[in-house]
Structure formats: structure tokens, C-alpha cells
Amino acid sequence: MQLDDALRARYVRDGYLVFPSLFSATEIAPLCRETERLIEAARGKSESDDVHDLEDSHEPDGEPRVRRIKDPVQQFDLYRAFSRNDKLLSVVRFLIGDNVRFHNSKINIKAAGFGAAVEWHQDWAFYPHTNDAVLAVGIALQDLTESNGPLLVVPGSHRDQVYDHHTDGVFTGAIKASSVARESKRAVPLTGPAGSITIHHARTLHGSSLNRSGSPRPLLLISYAAADAWPLMGITEYESFNQKLVSGSECLVPRMESLPVRLPVPAARFQGSIYENQRGLKERAFSNN
Ligand SMILES: O=C(O)CCC(=O)C(=O)O
Q1: DSSP letters for 121-174
Q2: Hey, which bits of 32-109 come out as E strands?
Q3: What is the model's pLDDT at position 194?
Q4: Model confidence band, residue 268 (pLDDT cutoffs 50, 70, 90)
């Protein structure tokens, strides 16, 4: 796909893009193997920890049932190297500029038959910044089809409001179903062969259903921000924050934009991952059964 003005305009209008087969099967094979190894490493575990977010139905003496591998880029060299891959970063730079900071990462496994749903939300509600040159890249480790729980995004929603992600006054990282009933009808599935990448803007409304199909949907998600976008929740320590720069140079002069913002406090009652945060939601759009 040509990185040209028309494509950028489409991203600005829609808040998402898909690059079919940006990577070949050979290029993503090491990531797929490592992901398989990490899933297998959950065998015998009885609860989620720093690496594994386990499905509710996981049993220590059964086949591993993993919802998510937590922050693979920060924890494992292979994904860290991939987060700096030139082909990937050329797309990110094209959309948010030359100075880019890694923000966070995860692999949502969506195993065949039972991989959990993710309720409607906007990433911006978890990590608002001083400007919204912030996006998430999804790398399809297997085919993304209409039936295996692909990301569903609502075109143009990144230019609209930031929805309430609280339940009973506490952050739950999810929007109650009735608040987005109309918008979610316009959602489009982001599909493509293994090796494709999806991009969604941090304010794009998105979610995904339970994977009832026979094919797994492991998706490596890596978020990036322009270096001049500073997190409104602050940073804990400058050195490690700055080490997340993956392209260009640091910026100590945040670019401020007047944007709708909500803060993710008081903190979610259930901690550990978005799946846990969303446990507090009372009115769900997607079933997990
Ligand atoms: O994996 C998915 O389908 C949704 C992922 C997502 O939006 C998230 O983890 O924030």
C-alpha cells in the first residue's frame, strides 16, 4: 500500500487502517513460535501473573487457556526487536511523525472456541495524552476473519466524544452497551491474512466478540505515541520513559491540544488487564458464553 496523502487523509477521516499482508509468513513465524511457547508456559499455573492473563475457564491441570500475554515488548527481546522493525515504524512515522515513543503492548490470544470478548472502549480513556497523535498497531499472527473475533472499529468515532468508562463511579475500562448501541451498529471488522497489520487511533471506539470459531486469533498489539504527546497521568521515572523512544528524538516541550479527556480514576476494582478491569461493567454488549 502506498504511503501517500490519500491514505493519511483516510486515517484522519476514519481513525483506522488495515495493511493486508504487510509482513510475510516467514517474517512473523518467530513471533508465532514464541507466542505458542508462552501460551504453553501457562500450563500448571493456577492464577494470572505478570506474563499471563488467564481465561476464567483455565485449569492448572488442563490445556493452557490464556487470554493475554502481558507487555511482551517490555518482557521479551523478540517482541522488543519487532516493535522497532523498520517496516512497522515507517507506517507509524507516516501517521504520527518522525519522533515516536513506544507506549505499551500485549498479545490478545482469542483462542478458538472460547477466546474472551473485549467490551466497547477507547484506548484514550486508559491513557489520555497532551495530544492525540497516539495509536495502536495490531499484528495478525494468524488470519483475522469475520468469524474469529476480529477487532470491530467504528469509523470516524475518534473525532467524536470520549465516552464514560466508569461504572458506579469507578473506572471499568468499558462503555455500557446502551451508550454506544447506535454507534456500534456502524462498526467494521478489521480482517486480513496473517502478517496483516491494523491501525487504530487512540480515540477510536472499538471492541471484539467472543471467538466462537474453530480458528484462533492471536493479535500482537503495540501502541505508540508521538514524542511530543505526554501522558496526562504522568510518568513515574524519566529515564525508563525516555528509553521507550523508538524513532527520532525526545521532546521536553509537550504539544498541547484542546481535546475531550476523561481520567481513569478511581482505579478499576479488578486489576491486571483490560479483561479484569471490564469485569466491573454491569451492562455488557458482548457475551462471554
Ligand atoms: O483484542 C481485541 O480484540 C481488542 C483489544 C483491545 O482493544 C485492547 O486490548 O485494548
Answers
A1: E-GGGTS-BSS--EEEEEEESS-B-TTS---EE-TTGGGSPPPP-EETTEE-SS
A2: 52-54, 66-70, 100-108
A3: 98
A4: confident
| Centroid of ligand 1 to alpha carbon of 253 (angstroms) | 31
pLDDT-based confidence at residue 235 (cuts at 50, 70, 90) = very high
Domain 5-280, CATH number (from 2.60.120.620, 3.40.50.720, 3.60.20.10, 1.10.1760.20): 2.60.120.620
Q: What is the pTM of this model?
A: 0.97
Mean pLDDT of 1-14: 95
Task: Report whether the peptide linkage leading into residue 155 is cis, meaning its omega lies within 30 degrees of zero.
Answer: no
Residue pair 165/158 in contact (Cβ under 8 Å)? The answer is: no
Does position 288 have pLDDT exceeding 90, yes or no? no
Ligand 1: atom nearest CA of 126 is: 10
Residue 280 is given by DSSP the state G
* Domain boundaries, given as residue ranges, for the chain: 5-280
Give the position of cell 504539544: 255
pLDDT tens digits, one per residue of 46-73: 999 999 999 999 999 999 999 999 999 9
Distance 122 CA to ligand 1 centre (A): 10
Q: Using a 6 Å CB cutoff, which residues line ligand 1?
A: 106, 108, 118, 123, 151, 206, 208, 219, 221, 274
| Nearest residue to 51 (alpha-carbon basis) of 62, 38, 64 | 38
